[in-house]
Amino acid sequence: MKAVTWQGKRDVRVETVPDPVIQEPTDAVIRVTSTGLCGSDLHLYEVLTPFMTPGDILGHEPMGIVEEVGAGVIDLSVGDRVVVPFQIACGDCWMCLNSLPTQCETTQVTAEGMGAALFGYTRLYGAVPGGQAEYLRVPQAQYGPIKVPEGPPDDRFVYLSDVLPTAWQAVEYADIPEGGSVAVLGLGPIGDMACRVAQVRGAGRVFGVDLVGDRLRRARARGVETYDLRSFDSEKELVAAIRDETDGRGPDAVIDAVGTEAHGSATARLIQNASALLPRKISGPSPNGSASTGSPPSTRPSSWCAAAARSR
Ligand SMILES: [Zn+2]
Ligand SMILES: [Zn+2]
Q1: Ligand 1 center to residue 24 CA distance, Å?
Q2: Which of 202, 222, 267, 303 gives 20 to 30 Å between its CA and that of 24?
Q3: Sign of the torsion angle spanned by Cα atoms 296, 3, 52, 69
């Protein structure tokens, strides 16, 4: 099959690799019909280079059709259409039963001190081949895959794998009071969805900040009060403008959906370049530190594409 493989820093290529096969009774193999390319993949492109091995297959946001199931997978059948979440979890251990599947004790990568294994995400998370490929082996398929309705391919479902849950979780953590306000920083896929989720869940006012015209227009069309970063001379001015709209107090909550590798983040670039220069041992512990986007998956039940906080 063909797959997107990591070959080195800033070197990603489509290569022909062996087709995946069932290895455990709890495995399934799916034929991938659509798959996302995540902001988190940018970490692998540069920051997490020391933890990658040439030939690693990338991707953690796939959906597809079940081609084969192991004997232990009873709820899935060949031909089912499924979305596969980022984390690999058993559904049955103490962590899973306590709603912390990213800490699944069955798949935890204890040798690296990490949480549950993840698709396509370095040896820190189990070096599991990812979903930017024609076929994907899905471990723990008795629990992970989510069946979606039959019918023509509909790319909306692929957002269930990582993007929509991340945005949902950010809004959950932000804990916006009914009718209250939230400022969403960054209106890429996660920020845009966080705005929509906040509206659906009862936020009274949603402020969105970005510096890309198309994103601002898209959010504005859905009732988000948008702020174009380019039209302010300083961050202070932007903060003042939002404060003015909220009786001088600021919004009830803020969601940071920008990410440290964002356009224009000179500090992040400096940290990344510096960490890539460090010896392996020293640069090793850094993926959950300042060079990552949002909070590490080892402490949070959702993925690490966004962070949220009550502002007061
Ligand atoms: Zn992702
Ligand atoms: Zn588990």
Answers
A1: 25
A2: 303
A3: positive
